[in-house]
Design brief:
This protein has about 120 residues and is α+β, with helices and mostly antiparallel strands. It folds into 2 domains: about 5-80, no CATH class; about 85-120, no CATH class. The chain has helices spanning about 5-15, 65-70, 80-90, and strands at about 20-25, 25-40, 45-55, 60-65, 105-110, 115. The strands form 2 sheets. The protein has a 4-stranded antiparallel β-sheet. The chain has a two-stranded antiparallel sheet with strand order 5-6. A hairpin with a 4-residue loop joins β3 and β4 (about 60-65). It starts with a helix and ends with a strand.
Length: about 120
């Protein structure tokens, strides 16, 4: 049994089991592996645990465990929340769903200013 194999086995025994836990829209399915880091003497050692997670939207994504358990700026989805927020911001740029519907908006550029009315 090699020293790298012993280190990996020891690292597995030291990590907290997140299997089945929910983090926002993500559910930790299983341990997918470890990141690899180098020690000062050049040997490779296991770094952070990587978990395979399933999102509520159906996607599966590998995420570093510390990112799941962080108190601030933690990973809570497979980026589907960001896509939904972006789609919500873009929805209704023109037309009756627009925030600016019926109002004049000043559009400025380097060469000229003009007023645009989004009301039809």
């Amino acid at each position: 049994m090699g020293t790298d194999h012993r280190r990996m086995r020891r690292a597995r025994s030291m990590i907290r089991d997140l299997t089945g836990q929910t983090f926002g829209r993500l559910i930790a399915i299983r341990l997918a592996g470890f990141t690899i880091r180098r020690s000062k003497d050049g040997k490779s050692m296991p770094g952070q645990a990587i978990w395979l997670c399933k999102c509520a939207c159906g996607n599966e994504k590998e995420i570093v465990g510390s990112s799941l358990t962080a108190k601030r700026k933690a990973t809570r989805s497979c980026d589907c929340i960001a896509r939904e927020k972006a789609a919500a911001r873009l929805k209704g740029i023109r037309g009756q769903d627009s925030i600016a519907f019926g109002h004049r908006v000043t559009v400025a550029s380097k060469r000229f200013k003009r007023e645009v009315c989004y009301a039809s």
